[in-house]
From TrEMBL:
GO terms for molecular function: actin filament binding; ATP binding; calmodulin binding; microfilament motor activity. The lineage of its organism: Eukaryota, Metazoa, Chordata, Craniata, Vertebrata. The gene is MYO1G. GO terms for biological process: actin filament organization; actin filament-based movement; endocytosis. It comes from the Eukaryota. SMART domains: MYSc. Signal peptide: none annotated. This is Myosin IG.
Length: 605
């Protein structure tokens, strides 16, 4: 009866009440409410269970017959209760023994015999406590109520009927808070036969289960109902007026817009708070359209989210670069401040800051550091040059030109000594021949009109017959002269300086040099030291004065090549190769003809 009452409340009564509450036009359907039968059994002070409990608690000789008489007295006016006393002609019941209840499923006759005995719970707390204190763990687990002490339990135990009623009430309360789905089973016959169908029996079951009323309510009602907010949240993407958010005054108007767009006017009803859909077909149509739009919305959400992540990463990267930029600017400023602190007094230093240690620059200032360092070196050189007398500037320029041209490939090139340039007119270097050379040079100057002597000195030269002879070399700003020192510096050959294009020297300590010409008739020679300093190197001086003259006066390049092995040249258009060898017993430096050209023989010491 309690489960049937729950079914009536959930399926029939609540549904019709919901229609009335929502203001839906509804024709009420009558159904049997078994609350009167439930009250007959469990009503306080008047129900059958209350009468049984009262009889069990009464002191004295109370029998089942006395209990039945009490029920007849208190339930005489109840339409669903009867006994032989109220219906003497019904011989299916005995006097003082049977009573009948008209249940929703049919009439049931009960025998009062043994009711009181079965209703009494003679299992007192002492016995439960005894079982709980057993050493057997199984018995102890079976009697958990025995853990209560004698001072905690003073009431009589509840009767069996009351315990059963409380259990049923708890079950119904638990089911009422759920959303039940009913499966009604119809018993086709009493014989349990698979091929026998008892129409009367089935109709009776359909009637007392309330299936007819349930079907009538379902057919007359609506298959789906939902709050406007939840319906809108689920199906708003199917309407252009509600996606993504509507601008209407209420959710109901937005739901009406969805229904109007899909043409479901005749299949829905609008309640105060809910939308009611009559047939599942309309709902299936909405679900299909929603399922088709979900992938599109997912892609849209993914796009938006990816864009948000990209913008977040972009903001983070911008923040990182901003921090990096600020830090780099700080490092740059700190480097500038440190450089300024270290080089604040370089103008007053004796070495103009050459001994000052440069701070380590940050990576961003590596190129700037090199440029600044170069500028400081140039400024330092400028300060040094400013202190050089004007008479020595020509020598300084020549040495700088030699340093640049040789690029450190020649070990000794005479940088540590004074460069005289015109050694043939120097009395200390050539005391016996200087006066004669001065006279000849004046005559040549008057005759050819050259401006100054670039270089002069004795040399060992290979002539056109491939033989080595002693000659005097005079290089002016206009011509190159080959002189015969043994015949009072007679001019043997004069070549314009413009014909010379470059110079080749070795990386060793020898004094060999090759002057290259544009006519492919190069000059091979070996410079000879004078009496001023027999071991001084004059090749570097020759390189410096020629490169400085061509770059500063003629504004044209003069190529210098430093060879580690053999020198390559051309004599009268024929290629030649010159190597350097040390020969034991050789007293002077001299050339020797070889298969591919010449060999410069050096003394062993």
């Amino acid at each position: 009866e309690k489960l049937q009452q729950l079914f009536i409340e959930l399926i029939l009564q609540q549904e019709q009440d919901e229609y009335q509450r929502e203001g839906i036009t509804w024709q009420h359907i009558d159904y049997f409410n078994n609350q009167i039968i439930v009250g007959l059994v469990e009503q306080q002070h008047k129900g059958i269970i209350s009468i049984l409990d009262e009889a069990c608690l009464t002191v004295g000789n109370v029998t089942d017959t006395v209990c039945l008489e009490s029920m007849n007295t208190k339930l005489a006016q109840h339409p669903h209760y009867t006994s032989r006393k109220f219906n003497p002609s019904d011989k299916s019941m005995d006097f003082q023994k049977h009573f009948r209840i008209r249940h929703y499923a049919g009439d049931v006759t009960y025998s009062i015999d043994g009711f009181l005995e079965k209703n009494k719970d003679l299992l007192f707390q002492d016995f439960k406590r005894l079982m709980y204190n057993s050493t057997n763990p199984v018995l102890k687990e079976m009697w958990p109520d025995g853990q209560l002490s004698i001072t905690e339990v003073t009431k009589r135990p509840l009767t069996a009927a009351t315990l059963f009623k409380n259990s049923i009430v708890a079950l119904v309360d638990k089911l009422a808070c759920k959303e039940p789905y009913y499966v009604r089973c119809i018993k086709p016959n009493e014989m349990k036969s698979p091929v026998l169908f008892d129409d009367a029996r089935c109709e009776h079951q359909v009637a007392y289960l309330g299936l007819l009323e349930n079907v009538m309510v379902r057919r007359a009602g609506f298959a789906y109902r939902q709050l406007y907010a939840r319906f809108l949240q689920r199906y708003k993407m199917t309407c252009e007026y509600t996606w993504p958010n509507h601008l209407m005054s209420s959710d109901r108007e937005a739901v009406e817009a969805i229904i109007t767009q899909h043409g479901f006017h005749d299949d829905v009803a609008y309640g105060h708070t809910k939308l009611f859909v009559r047939t599942p077909r309309s709902l299936f149509t909405l679900e299909q359209e929603r399922a088709a739009l979900i992938p599109i919305l997912v892609l849209f959400l993914q796009k938006v989210w990816r864009g948000a992540l990209a913008r977040l990463r972009c903001r983070r990267m911008r923040a990182i670069y901003t921090i990096m930029g600020c830090y780099k600017r700080y490092k740059v400023k700190a480097h500038f401040w440190e450089v300024e602190r270290r080089f604040a007094n370089v103008r007053t230093m004796a070495d103009y800051g050459r001994s000052v240690q440069w701070p380590t620059p940050p990576a961003a200032l590596a190129s700037f550091h090199r440029i600044t360092n170069s500028l400081h070196r140039r400024w330092w050189a400028r300060q040094i040059v400013k202190n050089i007398p004007p008479s020595d500037m020509l020598e300084v320029r020549a040495k700088v030109a030699a340093l640049t041209s040789l690029s450190g490939e020649r070990k000794d090139w005479g940088v540590g000594r004074a460069w005289e340039r015109d050694y043939l007119s120097n009395v200390r270097d050539c005391p016996q021949t200087s006066s004669g050379f001065v006279r000849v040079s004046k005559e040549l100057k008057n005759k050819d009109g050259y401006g100054q002597v670039v270089f002069s000195g004795f040399c060992r030269k290979v002539n056109r017959f491939n033989k080595s002879t002693d000659r005097a070399l005079l290089i002016t700003d206009q011509f190159v002269y080959k002189l015969e020192p043994k015949k009072q510096f007679k001019v043997l050959k004069r070549v314009p300086l413009d014909l010379f294009t470059g110079l080749s020297v070795t990386s060793g300590v020898d004094q060999m040099a090759v002057l290259h010409t544009s006519s492919h008739d190069d000059v091979l020679m070996c410079l000879q030291p004078g009496e001023l300093c027999p071991n001084q190197d004059r090749v570097g001086e020759l390189v410096g004065v020629l490169v400085d003259h061509f770059s500063r006066i003629r504004n044209s390049p003069f190529h210098v090549k430093v060879c580690c092995s053999a020198l390559q040249l051309q004599m009268r258009g024929r290629p030649k190769s010159v190597t350097v060898e040390t020969k034991p017993g050789q007293t002077i430096t001299d050339f020797k003809k070889s298969r591919n050209g010449f060999i410069l023989l050096l003394p062993a010491n």
